[in-house]
Amino acid sequence: MVLLRSEKGRGPSHRKPRGGTHEARSTPPGGTPVLLLGLGPGAESGPCASQGSSLNRTTPPLPDPSVLLVLPDLSGGGAERTSLNVRQKLCGQGRNVRLALLEARGEYLDLVSPDDYVLPSSRPLRGLARLCPPDSPQRALAQIPLLMGLLRREAPDVLMSSMADVTLPLALAFAWMPGRRRATRWIAREGNNTRVVIERAFPNPRLRRPVEKLIRWAYRSADVCLAISPGVAQGLVDHYDVDPKRIRIIANPVDLEGVRAGAVTPLTVNLPPRFIVGVGRLAYQKGFDLLIDAFSQLDDPGLDLVLVGSGPEEAALKARAEALGLGKRVHFPGFVEHPSAILARAEIFCLSSRWEGFGHVIVEAMASGCPVVVTDCEYGPADIVQQGENGILVAPDSSDALAAGLKQLLLRPDEAKRLATRALVRAEDFSVDTIAASYWDLFAETEASP
After folding, report:
1. pLDDT at 56 over 90
2. Is residue 228 domain-shared with residue 281, that is, in the same domain?
3. CA separation (Å) from 413 to 110, 321, 347, 436?
4. pLDDT value at 441 more than 90
5. Are 164 and 190 in contact (CB under 8 A)?
6. Which string of DSSP letters, residue by residue, matches 217-283?
7. Are residues 9 and 43 both part of a single domain?
């Protein structure tokens, strides 16, 4: 499905109030027109309205393009899950879609066999890149020859890079290979709030400015920029001067069958009888410190909090829970490959993020039958959740707002059940079947473009 946003309606005052705990922001905040694919039929009642497909279905079919999906590794994030889900679905349909990793590591590596992905040929260069700090300029430079080797060996018709830490060195690799650049159509996928990520990584403006210039050049060099939500797309326009005509939006695909099957499987971790759950990397972005503070405001001693994930903030979060006298009621089971069994048993799922690109786990929680309370942060959650229809949106970066949203559902179990039932329907809009088809349309459209 292709959707077109009107040029009108800039700013939050133009969004129709939806009532409830928090009035959602305008998504995207700007009014630049961009094409949206794969948001599903639920988008008619969400931030966009269907305008029909822009692909010309009357032209003779072209041979299927060869597609290469490039990731830094298989860490447990949305970009990795998306690439795995899309590749599995399209390969099952006989499409030529391959996965390339710059490094064979990450929580999702056990989900694939060595035959399912390719690595750069040069072991010494891969070892050199591993010695460089993650997300550093040194690692980006070390990845350039790795990507050049992949391009020579694989020679894809279409290449999709995910995340800025691959997109930037790939742009530099293409700059050294003009012949390969002319032969390969390049889609730069962005799945996060890049501006905030760079601001936190480079707090010194003098260091940040050249990085931002390079990122801007890299995104403007791609044939297509793929965003996973309207807000991410608007950020590419506003902060990196990307031509909106070259932006497409496809939401993350969710393996709904896998989520539902996982929801009824036996638990692999010990859980308390009643609990609220948060799922994600234990990092500042995810706002679990805010969730712990919000949990401390709930007057329900029989209720616990389970934070599923791993990350650099784990020790600080445990210390925070202890300081609030909640050490025995806040649980840290670690990373779980398939959290739907936990989500299905929770009273509420809470996403407390300070920023997002989409909010993949929100859809997983919805598909698991769990009512959701999520922050209306930049970007993504408000494109999934309709306030008071299939979940609760609250103001971001506020433990008080999170506590109010959680209390609303804990005190009104009938409302929680109603929202969870409607959320099951909303989750269908993000099924891997629907989204993978939009990805293939994009690959074919990009390869056929002049």
Report:
1. no
2. no
3. 39, 26, 9, 36
4. yes
5. yes
6. HHHHHSSEEEESSHHHHHHHHHHH---GGGEEEEPPPB-HHHHHHHHTSPPSS---SSEEEEES-SS
7. yes
Element (H, E) at 308: strand 304-308
pLDDT tens per residue, range 238-296: 999 999 999 999 999 999 999 999 898 888 889 999 999 999 999 999 999 999 999 99
Half-sphere exposure of 28 (CA within 13 A, CB side): 28
Asked whether the beta carbons of 108 and 91 are under 8 A apart, the reply is no
Do residues 40 and 229 lie in contact, with contact meaning Cβ atoms separated by under 8 Å? no
| Same domain? 136 vs 84 | yes
Q: How many domains does the chain have?
A: 2
Per cent of the chain over pLDDT 70 is 86
Q: What is the pLDDT of residues 326-359, one digit of tens each?
A: 999 999 999 998 899 999 999 999 999 999 999 9
- 8 Å CB contact between 121 and 146: no
- The enclosing domain of 331 has a CATH number of 3.40.50.2000
DSSP assignments along 74-136, one per residue: --SSHHHHHHHHHHHHHHHTT--EEEEESSS-STTGGGS-GGGEE--S-HHHHHHHHHSPTT-
Q: Are residues 194 and 300 in the same domain?
A: no
**pLDDT, the chain, mean:** 86
Alpha-carbon distance of 400 to 290, in angstroms, equals 9
Provide the residue type at 123 as one letter. Answer: R
The number of CA neighbours under 13 Å toward the Cβ of 128 is 13
Q: If you search the block for the tokens 């400015």, which residue do you land on?
A: 209
Strand partners, 374: 351, 393
Residue 412 CB contacts under 8 Å (≥ 6 apart), including other chains: none
